[in-house]
UniProtKB/TrEMBL annotation:
The keyword RNA-binding does not apply. The keyword Translocase does not apply. The gene is LOC105134218. GO terms for cellular component: membrane. This is Probable receptor-like protein kinase At5g24010. It comes from Populus euphratica. It comes from the Eukaryota. Pfam families: Malectin_like.
């Protein structure tokens, strides 16, 4: 089991990130105010999982530069292919879509790519950049020879009446493409504004998550099967965890729950995680009356140079009564949550709960999450449980999710040629702008030191001023 080097104990106020009182609802209950679904390059509308994607050839299409683009159709589609992946919009010059927004706030943006071959054009050769509302979402992106479709998902804050998506060829002679686009209002409780900053040295909270651009890089259903958009309230995909699980012991096992998940105060709404995630888990169980000195660990490949939002989902589907599970949570080897007792938060079994952590990459290209026993773990019990993990990349100081490049650099580089020519000049400008933004935020923070997000005031039995989160040193 990972141990800490520091003997200091730091205590945070317990931050319950989502409070909602819900009865079981059908998966179709979520109805976003903004719900733009676009089938790119198609001449007809397409229905996928009971969702209607509108052709971008429609006169009311958000595409603003159709004269510079080419619609393309797959002439030899697979009989089992999804219809939105049989057409694409080709961009040989910078082009953009502008989506009207009625409700300010966090929006989910999904870009769908499938590299088919048609009309002597092989989409796997495309190389391009994508900007979303001034953030660099993709830089020098190429789908390559991947046979399956690729979906890139982002969470973008919109405080104006439009979300603009730019497609820019990497250089003159290159081209970009996209098969389908989704721009959807996110549920209001999906991205909380405050998370726990885990670095092992000091107790901090990260404020302003909602204003960050986030890219989903991993979304894992621990111990369970793949969950498709058809079975998720907000149309997400969750993949099985087995390729990420690195524990080398035989004492962890998968759990399946056939009962009812209780969504209540202190838990998580269906939009935060579906039943299909909370009804499955992996647990460590001890035998022979001895608590084992082992952790369950998952390792996820990540890009270096970014902060990451790590969301961990918990639901006690393993206990027969309250108070039987106590365990520690680690992120990148740091103790992130000590003596987690789910029943002290949810006050009932099979009730979902999630926690958001913010962590820097450790320059290894791998992000690790672990759960394991604590000093309060009981004999013949469960030493740890985890139901799901989401890992989201946060934009860097240049407003980019695609390297040390800002949106201004991308737009000004075309059509002069290779973007590398402008890097020494424009990168300096981007850096100066980002430093100015940081100084402005610090000034505003000094004027308004209250940085916690609003918490509910009527939570029976929960004292929000005395939590059990302890941070300490790294293993």
């Amino acid at each position: 089991m990972e141990e800490t080097n520091s003997h200091r104990i730091h205590t945070f106020s317990l931050l319950i990130l989502t409070f909602s009182l819900l009865s079981p609802l059908p998966l179709s209950s979520f109805s976003p105010t903004d719900n733009h679904l676009i089938s790119c390059g198609s001449t007809v509308d397409t229905t996928v999982d009971n969702r209607r994607f509108i052709s971008d050839s429609n006169p009311n299409s958000p595409l603003l530069s159709s004269a510079k683009t080419i619609p393309l159709t797959n002439q030899s589609p697979s009989p089992y292919s999804i219809q939105i992946y049989n057409s694409a919009r080709i961009f040989k010059k910078p082009s953009k879509y502008a989506f009207e927004i009625e409700e300010p706030g966090t929006h989910m943006v999904r870009l769908h790519f499938h590299a088919f071959f048609s009309s002597n054009l092989d989409l796997s050769d495309a190389q391009f950049h994508v900007l979303v509302n001034g953030y660099v979402a993709l830089s020098n992106f190429s789908v390559g020879k991947v046979r399956d479709f690729v979906v890139k998902e982002y969470f973008i804050w919109a405080d104006s009446d439009k979300i603009v998506i730019n497609f820019v060829p990497a250089k003159k002679g290159d081209y970009g493409f996209v098969n389908a686009i989704e721009v959807i209002s996110a549920p209001k409780d999906l991205i909380a504004d405050v998370g726990f900053l885990v670095n092992g040295n000091k107790d901090e909270k990260f404020v302003g998550l909602t204003k960050q651009a986030l890219e989903t890089v991993h979304r894992i259903n621990v111990g369970g099967p793949k969950v498709t958009p058809f079975n998720d309230t907000v149309w997400r995909t969750w993949i099985p965890d087995h390729e990420f699980l690195k524990s080398s012991n035989d004492l962890s096992k998968r759990m399946y729950f056939g009962g009812r998940i209780h969504y209540q105060i202190g838990g998580a709404s269906r939009e935060v995680g579906p039943d299909f995630v909370y009804k499955t888990a992996r647990v460590i169980t001890n035998t022979n009356g001895s608590v084992l000195n082992v952790n369950m660990t998952w390792e996820f490949p990540v890009d270096e140079g970014y902060k990451y939002l790590v969301r961990m989902h918990f639901c006690d589907i393993a206990s027969i009564s309250l108070g039987l599970i106590h365990f520690n949570v680690y992120v990148n080897g740091y103790l992130a949550y000590e003596d987690l007792d789910l029943s002290s938060i949810t006050y009932t079994l099979a009730s979902p709960f999630y926690v958001d952590f913010v962590v820097d990459d450790d320059s290894s290209g791998v992000l690790r999450v672990s759960v394991g026993p604590t000093n309060k773990t009981m004999a013949y019990g469960v030493d740890g449980i985890l139901n799901g993990v989401e890992i989201m990349k946060m934009n860097n100081s240049m407003g980019s999710l695609g390297g040390k490049i800002c949106a201004g650099m991308v737009l000004k580089s075309w059509p002069r040629g290779n973007i590398g020519v402008l890097v020494p000049f424009v990168a300096g400008l981007c850096l100066l702008l980002s430093l100015a933004l940081v100084m402005h935020r610090r000034t505003v923070g000094l004027r308004n030191p209250v940085s916690w997000s609003k918490l509910p005031t009527e939570v029976p039995g929960v004292d929000l001023n005395h939590g059990n989160l302890h941070l300490s040193g790294k293993a």
